[in-house]
């Protein structure tokens, strides 16, 4: 998640940045000491979430939020305030604030709220990606043979992770596997695969550990997205297909239970990278070969 902080109190900005960094909740990509100073920056870099103080000199938090929305900003807002005035709080919610963080800033409250809004955004994005994927699938029926990259990207779209940092690594890995091995039952050792795609990408082999971590975090995001879909609709076709095939289903159920109970912390999930990659490989190869037969 990408955050922008707007607060005239430097100490509050620093505290929020530290909480986000220490909790591995995302990255702060900008900050400003007033509403007037943040407008151009927010519109340029388009963060996912703006954390904004309610009372500031010049433009207050609500006025700043209104101007940003009028100029096309579509991210989310979290209001920061020590004000308990119900009318002002109500107005902020009406204008589009998702949550309030109260001053003095409390680490646990901030972490809980940021995790909730991150989950909301992921779920919203995954549903949007599913719609786009369905539209893409319809148009693909009349298209020529798709590349391995296009097939993998379509599957990653279904899982809501096409834009994650590890998605390029996963695509490169599938291209490498199909070009090098063709049809196989089991994957080579993961360490060999990480080194192979590091070399294929022109990256020194010592960075293979970084590739592993990017892929692990990307699969964990897929776990959260699929669990979110299942907690809303157990009969969702994306959930029904991918949950048991790409993941350890007990892990998905555990994550769903945490979401249903609205716990602030996430379930401790052990990602099975090999199961995910093997399922993705078989699906990619099947679609790739099917397209090849149809175009003969």
UniProtKB/TrEMBL annotation:
InterPro entries (alphabetical): CheY-like_superfamily, Sig_transdc_resp-reg_receiver, ST_Response_Regulator, YcbB
SMART domains, alphabetically? REC
Record keywords, A-Z: Phosphoprotein
Asked if the keyword Phosphoprotein belongs to this entry, the reply reads yes
**Residues with 4-aspartylphosphate modification:** 53
- Spell out where the chain crosses the membrane: none
Q: Does the keyword Phosphoprotein apply?
A: yes
Pinpoint the Response regulatory domain residues.
2-118
Q: Which PANTHER family match?
A: TRANSCRIPTIONAL REGULATORY PROTEIN GLNL, TWO-COMPONENT RESPONSE REGULATOR
Name the UniProt record assigns to this protein: Response regulator
- What organism is listed for this UniProt entry? Siminovitchia sediminis
Species lineage, top-down?
A: Bacteria, Bacillati, Bacillota, Bacilli, Bacillales
